[in-house]
């Protein structure tokens, strides 16, 4: 069975949503992706939606929405996006903090940079799971 990965940050509107989309796009054969936060926003960050659509052809508005930690199933791996405040806690067998800056309110360059970093980290995570480097 594929491990479940949760990408979490406080608002579940930008970085964690981008990670969920890219996890589904690049690693769905290896793990299941979801995202959540301790607070929700009425909509996903629309700059993030636009950039992910431009770069990867994925429309997050159609497939994703802001969720609370209590809205998602039990997971095996928790990836924290990098909260400067207290990161949400979710029980898991493996946890990492990717320490990403929040691009909200910044220019497209920042969003593109963040998306590319997330893409690389998602692929690396998939590789480590596949190689058994992450023990679950």
From TrEMBL:
Record-linked CDD domains: LMWP_ArsC
Keyword entries, A-Z: Arsenical resistance
Residue span(s) of domain Phosphotyrosine protein phosphatase I: 3-128
GO biological process, one term: response to arsenic-containing substance
Domain of life of the source: Bacteria
Gene3D superfamilies listed in its UniProt record: 3.40.50.2300
InterPro entries: Ptyr_pPase, Ptyr_pPase_sf
PANTHER family: ARSENATE REDUCTASE
Protein name: Protein tyrosine phosphatase
Species the sequence originates in: [Clostridium] ultunense Esp
């Amino acid at each position: 069975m594929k491990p479940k990965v949760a990408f979490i940050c406080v608002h579940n509107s930008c970085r964690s949503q981008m990670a969920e989309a890219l996890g589904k796009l690049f690693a769905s054969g290896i793990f299941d992706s979801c995202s959540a936060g301790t607070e929700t926003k009425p909509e996903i960050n629309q700059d993030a939606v636009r950039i992910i659509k431009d770069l990867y052809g994925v429309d997050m508005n159609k497939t994703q929405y802001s969720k609370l930690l209590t809205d998602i199933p039990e997971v095996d791996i928790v990836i924290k996006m990098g909260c400067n405040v207290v990161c949400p806690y979710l029980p898991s067998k493996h946890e990492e903090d990717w320490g990403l800056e929040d691009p909200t309110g910044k220019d497209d360059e920042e969003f593109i940079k963040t998306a590319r970093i997330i893409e690389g980290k998602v692929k690396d995570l998939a590789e480590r799971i596949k190689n058994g480097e992450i023990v679950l």
